[in-house]
Design brief:
Rossmann fold; 7-stranded mixed β-sheet; 30% helix
Length: 536
């Protein structure tokens, strides 16, 4: 990379903070309960954290792990850690002790910051983490300090508020490592770079229409793709972050009303719980609320339910390996006069690439040739550009496989419509091949979501002696409903080809990740135990 000059400046999202401090020093940057930090105060805390890390011999290239919900320290880490050239490792708070231990050790983390709700878990594995030299307790719930180290505020106080210059010299240096869910073995560490994080944050501002007056509620975990880069995007625009420890519908609606929330991001499962709460309590929104959803293909019914209470839903699509969202279902004025369900059906598509992404296609994964733009022919979604990861940390083989043919391979099967909008049909591992026919689980799920008794649903292939495999639906029901399995199956038969209708139905709660994705692999493992199909 060239050195900074009259016609070049290194791109890093950390720089967004200093610009907003200059423009909005006394504006609320961060709100958490009764606590408010102006942009000037936010920057002071970032400098203190950065200087305290340096005092503890943390510097360029070192890894710093945070196990923390969406509270201010998690947000501060997104600036202080990369500011000194170190690498932030944000860890899923719902992982087991063994999974957390693997990530801390594999990432080579030298410091671990843990909220005291999860501190005991970290303390139980500390003897197996010889590379860690610094532990810090984030005392948010109470004053307990499960880890052998200071509390967060004391650690901050040990650092000077003197300004810290960005220690990064190459914008493709690693800024964060985000570990995947590990459904196909051990989690893989996805390496983000400063340039990609900067550009993806700009993309969020453009696509989600963030303004300086926006008030953003943190319903999306910051540990997930660094909050889809909104950790940096909201700051870039000088908007306001509203932190939220736990995602509970009642609390969400209370904060929306009391703090004047204008924007939030959420997986479809969060929208399901929000719409159910609104329906049960006859609630509608009093102001404009923009919601970006991603993480799983949302059913049109889910979108329609949320828009019926006054929200506007924007569907995006991406993966951890592309810094979160890569495409957006950009609305077209010609769709304005369609009926509500048809609008929701169009909004449920994964759409077109972000302005800052551009490169995205649906191809035959063997030949790498684009599939016909007919809305019917399935292929794999592939992507490339500035917001593709550098690779998997310490895993060259998996990196090369993901980047084969000069594209990042998503593993998602989709069709390309004649208007160049992409629509996901399934994950490659989820597609059902029954008697030689391909059946999309997403298509079945979208139909089931229109049944009035269905709250949540997941469809997977299960073994069948005649057809090889057939669809099975796992359904979480609306409160107070008790449909029979045969009623559900018959409902599908009236709306789908009979061979696509689920042959089996099971009622109960669905296993989920911390970001709201249904863990289909757990359902597959149970159903395919003793059979030959690859369940991962």
């Amino acid at each position: 990379m060239p050195e900074q000059s009259v016609n070049y400046d290194l791109l890093s999202p950390v720089k967004f903070l200093s610009r907003s401090v200059e423009v909005y020093p006394n504006k609320a940057a961060v709100i958490y309960g009764d606590r408010h930090f102006t942009y000037a105060q936010f920057q002071e805390r970032v400098f203190r954290l950065a200087n305290a890390l340096k005092k503890n011999n943390i510097g360029k290239g070192d890894k710093v792990a945070f196990i923390c919900p969406n509270t201010p320290p998690m947000l501060e880490a997104h600036y202080a850690v990369p500011l000194i050239g170190a690498v932030l490792v944000s860890i899923n708070i719902r992982l087991s002790a063994n999974e957390i231990a693997y990530i801390i050790d594999h990432s080579d983390a030298k410091a671990v910051f843990a909220d005291n709700e999860f501190g005991s878990t970290v303390a139980s594995i500390s003897s197996s983490l010889p590379k860690v030299g610094t532990y810090v307790n984030i005392c948010d719930l109470d004053d307990s300090k499960p880890l052998d180290g200071p509390d967060y505020e004391t650690f901050l106080a040990s650092g000077s508020e003197e300004p810290v210059e960005l220690a990064v010299t190459d914008e493709r240096d690693v800024i964060t490592i985000n570990y995947t869910s590990g459904t196909t073995g051990q989690p893989k560490g996805v390496m983000y770079h400063h340039r990609g994080a900067y550009l993806n944050a700009i993309g969020e501002l453009l696509e989600f229409k963030i303004s300086p007056d926006s008030v953003y509620l943190w319903t999306l975990p910051m540990f997930h793709c660094n909050g889809w880069c909104f950790t940096w995007a909201i700051t870039a625009m000088g908007a306001t972050h509203v932190c939220l420890r736990k995602v509970v519908p009642e609390e969400i609606y209370n904060i929306i009303d009391s703090k004047g929330i204008t924007h939030l991001c959420a997986a479809p499962t969060i929208l399901i719980s929000m719409s159910a709460y609104a329906r049960e309590n006859r609630l509608t929104l009093s102001g404009n609320l923009e919601i970006m959803t991603a993480g799983a293909p949302p059913a049109p019914t889910v979108i329609q339910n949320m828009e019926s209470i006054g929200a506007n839903i924007l569907q995006s699509y991406g993966l951890t390996e592309v810094f979160g969202p890569h495409s957006i279902c950009r609305w077209q004025p010609r769709w304005d006069d369609l009926d509500p369900f048809e609008k929701a059906r169009l909004k449920a598509r994964q759409g077109v690439p972000y302005i800052v992404a551009q490169h995205m296609d649906v191809v035959d994964s063997e030949t790498m040739e684009p599939v016909p733009r007919d809305g019917k022919t399935m292929g794999e979604i592939v992507m490339r550009g500035n917001n593709v990861m550098l690779g998997y940390y310490k895993d060259i083989e998996s990196t090369n496989d993901a980047f084969r043919g000069g594209w990042f391979h998503s593993g998602d099967l989709a069709v390309m419509h004649p208007d160049n909008y992409i629509q996901i049909m399934d994950r490659q591992k989820d597609i059902i091949i029954s008697g030689g026919e391909n059946i999309s689980t997403v298509e079945i799920e979208n139909v089931l979501f229109t049944h009035p008794d269905v709250l949540e649903v997941a469809v997977i292939p299960v073994p069948d002696p005649k057809w090889g495999e057939v669809p099975k639906a796992f359904i979480a029901l609306q409160n107070g409903t008790q449909p029979a399995a045969e009623d559900i199956i018959e409902f599908c038969r009236t709306k789908l080809a009979r061979f696509k209708a689920p042959k089996y139905v099971e009622f109960g709660e669905l296993p989920k990740t911390a970001t709201g994705k249904t863990q289909k692999f757990k359902l597959r493992e149970k159903e395919w135990e003793g059979h030959d199909r690859m369940v991962n």
